[in-house]
Amino acid sequence: MVCSSGMMRVAPLLSCQLYTTPTHRRHPNVYLEVSGIPPAKLLEYFPRLSEIAHKTVWGTDWPSPGITSMKANVEAFLALPLPDDVKAMILDGNARKLWA
Fold first, then answer.
1. 35-84, pLDDT tens digit by residue?
2. Strands of 2-4's sheet in order across
3. Are 5 and 11 in contact (CB under 8 A)?
4. What's the pTM value of the predicted model, to 2 decimals?
5. Strand, coil or helix: 34
């Protein structure tokens, strides 16, 4: 199961649920997919993203208003103050593991 954060209005609720309930720990098949949130806002909505990075999958809203390119979206994500291994997990590693 992939829990999409697609609508920004929902993101704080999902953030709260993921951090205050053991859902992602109890259910190994539950992942957070982060499309719909501008990369610059990810750490605002999910301040403990590094803690659930192993259960997070990258998603982009391209094409949609405000998204100029997937490359620009990925570059904005890579500019976040997260460890490189966390970024690699979210951008690539978790999806490979999930859909292998």
1. 888 888 899 988 989 988 998 999 877 777 777 888 988 999 999 999 99
2. 2-4, 31-33, 56-57
3. yes
4. 0.74
5. coil
Q: Which two tokens stand for residue 78?
A: 């890579």
Long-range contacts of the stretch 15-21 (C-beta < 8 A, 24+): 15/45, 15/46, 15/47, 18/46, 18/52, 19/48, 19/52
Beta bridge partners of 16: none
| Distance in angstroms (rounded) separating the CA atoms of residues 62 and 65 | 8
Alpha carbons 49 and 34: distance in angstroms, whole number: 11
If you average pLDDT over every residue of the chain, what do you get?
78
